[in-house]
Amino acid sequence: MTLTTRLGGAALFVAAVAAAAALIHFAVVLLVPIVAAHDAYARLAELETPGTTAPLPRAGPDERRFPWDDPALAASFCRFDLSAGPLRVKAPVGRAGFASLSFHTRRGAVFYALTDRAATHGRMEAVVVTPAQLRNLVAHDDEDDPSQDLRVVSPTVAGFVIMRAYSELPSLYAAAADEVEAMTCASEPPTP
Amino acid sequence: MTLVVKALAAGAIGLALGLAWSGSILADPPFGAVTIGAWRVAATAGSLDADPYTRAALARSGEIPLALGEGLKLVARVDSAGRPLDRRCLYRIGTRTPAARYWTLSLTDADGYPVENAAGRYGYRSSEILRDGDGGFSVYVSALAHSGNWLPIGRVQTFALALRLYDTPLAANAGGIEKSSVPTIEREGCA
Question: Could you report the predicted ipTM of this complex, rounded to two decimals?
């Protein structure tokens, strides 16, 4: 065996290793969101029974579920499944301090958010719908008395809603926690 | 025969390398984040059009991302001179932040969780921090107690700093945040 064929063989081997590594890498990156058994939705599922609003544990050294949560903010959540009908979310706001609602897909991505600046009559309110439910609702709308609902289309049937409330001082955290726990998520009867 | 063995060996090494490579890259996804001074911000990390790396990293970490309309999270793992944050050093962070209704500055471990410390202090809020005469602020980050706004490093080897800007008009254009508007992280000395 000459030196050239040896080198050629080694180069081929390295190329095969690199190709295999690249293939595995791209497969992992694309598959992780689909197969991740412990994503945010699954972690939330450990903390509540479906259809209820539950507080998110406050960020702290002993709470290692949701990285990068801010200890200055209180938060609550509800998971939803729109196959039972649209979901009406109501969140009363009335403290000094920032508050917000964010709407997440099953995979955790945000598809809508609003803050207390968009609150009317002292609350943030929205109806989460599937594209089909939106068409149905629009078809049943009274043209002379259009619905005032803020309708938000969810790209996935399942997902979750997070309410966050900022506490201006450490002593005001309890008030922020009370505010987020007052959020309600209720399934609406599907329109006939 | 040797060809089969070689092919299997190449596949096995490739598998190991590919997994290790994926693991390290998902710990800090390469795309979608911009660097502003010492800080990194991935403004669209939580959005529907995030890149596959960012999506995979999110699914794995379990983080519930902030929406653009809610605010921005900036993370620093280095000081303003680009040196990795070191628990043996004293840092001064200040004195301004980009415009926001509220902001918080907190210290976390490398994974984004608060670090236990005797003072029970994990961060500062814009609405509670002590300010100097012209409205600026300084936060001192060190393992040993410091006067003023002291953020203890606590029992951890590597740490990060998180600056969150709530209800900020900059969210839509995070890449356009001026370097001069973000807080600097000055290393004042090391033990």
Answer: 0.87
Chain B residue closest to A156 (CA)? B48
- For residue A142, the distance in angstroms to the closest alpha carbon of chain B comes to 31
CB spacing of B64 vs A115 below 8 angstroms: no
Residue B111 sits in a domain whose CATH number is 2.60.120.600
**A130 and A44 within one domain:** yes
- For the stretch A26-39, pLDDT in tens is 888 888 777 777 88
Of A64, A114, A155, nearest to B69 by CB-CB distance is A114
Pick from B173, B151, B174: nearest CA to B161: B151
Which residue has tokens 């984004």? Answer: B112
Hey, of B70, B101, B103, which one would you mutate to test binding to chain A, going by the most A CBs within 10 A of its CB?
B70
Q: Are B55 and B153 in contact (CB under 8 A)?
A: no
Q: Domain limits at B15? A: 1-30
Let me know if A7 is exposed, middle or buried by CB neighbors in 10 A (0-12, 13-18, 19+): exposed
